[in-house]
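Hi X.,

You mentioned you wanted examples for the new student's onboarding notes, showing what a folding record looks like when two proteins sit in one file. Here is a clean example. The first protein comes first, with its sequence line followed by its structure tokens.
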Amino acid sequence: MSSESASLARLSMSLPADLFRQLDTMVAERGLPSRSQLIAELIRHALAEHGSLNHPDEMLAGTITLVYRSEQGRVRHQLSQTQTSYLKEIISSQHVVLEEDQSLEVLLVQGPAVRLKELCDAIRRVRGMQQLELVTTTALLPPLYEPDGGNSQSIGANS
């Protein structure tokens, strides 16, 4: 038996017939090899969401996706001011201009669940925001810096 098979646990479940058909349709439309793969993905998502709601100090990584009207730079300026208060949590951001004076921005974030929620709430208060979605995972980015006797040194840097 392979080590991968040994680390698996079986789950048997009953679903209403209509829900079962919808699940199979979703598996087929996504081109997945099995229901198990889709169900595992859905469970991981639910666990990360549960963790962010019930364990506010838990460290999470993820993305915040924003869609907003640019409105002559006012919204971008307010977003920049808001993001300044969360420099420790925002790893990077990417911005693209969409049609009809709209913008799409994706923030790569990591931090305590409560701080990520506060960041989302602060961004939602920016007038002109049309959509915001936070997607998180409990898998974290590796540490960017390692303490070295009081001085920070980049991991992997030549000594």
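Then the second protein repeats the pattern, sequence line and then tokens:
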Amino acid sequence: MLTDTLATLQPADRAIVSAVSAHLDNLTKPPGSLGRLESLAVNLATQTGEAFPRVSPPGVLVFAADHGVAAEGVSAFPQDVTAQMVANFVAGGAGINVFSRQIGARLEVIDVGVAADVSVAGVVDEKVRHGTANMVEADAMSRDEAVAAIEAGIRAAERALAAGCRCLIVGEMGIANTTTSSALLAALTDAPVAGLIGRGAGLAESRLAHKQAVIERALVARAPDRDDPLDVLAKLGGLEIAAMAGAYLGGAARRVPLLVDGFIATVAALLACRLGPATRDYLVFAHRSREPGHAHALAALEAEPLLDLGLRLGEGTGAALAFPLLESATRMLGEMATFESAGVTVGNPG
């Protein structure tokens, strides 16, 4: 499935840019006066191949998994919280549930590697293994397990699209996953770990040096090959990050806009782009996280996010909050009058 998905990936349709741009300039407004909303509209058109794209309804995919590195004391919360939050997601009580309801999204929760047995109705069981190994002591998972997790993400994207979703928001839950994401980012970009780590879900400032040391030990012990993204993923983890990358690949292969959340989601997007470079054309970056590493991840993808609200929750919440901007961009294209249709005379500006 992964091989077929990578073979299907194609760049976005740049041939449509001139027609969409001309239409934007003929709408009843000064050219360019709606700023980045206009460039977003053009971007959505190239992604879908449609001059008048549609992004509703959105699909939200939340992948959950645990990380063996949590045993190193790098998180403010115990590992049990992952399974507890999965139950909260399906009960409708989490932040992503609130914002998904607000935007009319289809939401699916997928267990790809929670350490506990999750026996909650409403959770899609795609468990590859019960959490990753501690990357300080062993490879997080095998290469085959990494591929299996990616393919679980591809299947989730395909289910959402089969249900009629026109845009995907990919979120996550996994205690210690900012540690894993920082390790992945350091390995993929060769950036110093010190500039990539933050407090995650609320780690005390006094523990940041320990978190940095744990990641640096893991990078030395695992020695991942930065030119082989699957090697990096298998050695460092995590299962939900692999599945997120798979969802991006699956959505890009079907030419669907992919609204990227914060730090962890952007690292997963970077991984997807390393596996299938054309994926980059289908990414829309929702917001700038408070996590220090997010700026580095965005820079690696040459990305400028839509919002900057100081968020660091994850789950896909920032992307859900940004979704109305995509809806506004498409409605501007499809519903705003042109000068001709409105009978508005445009004089010679000279």
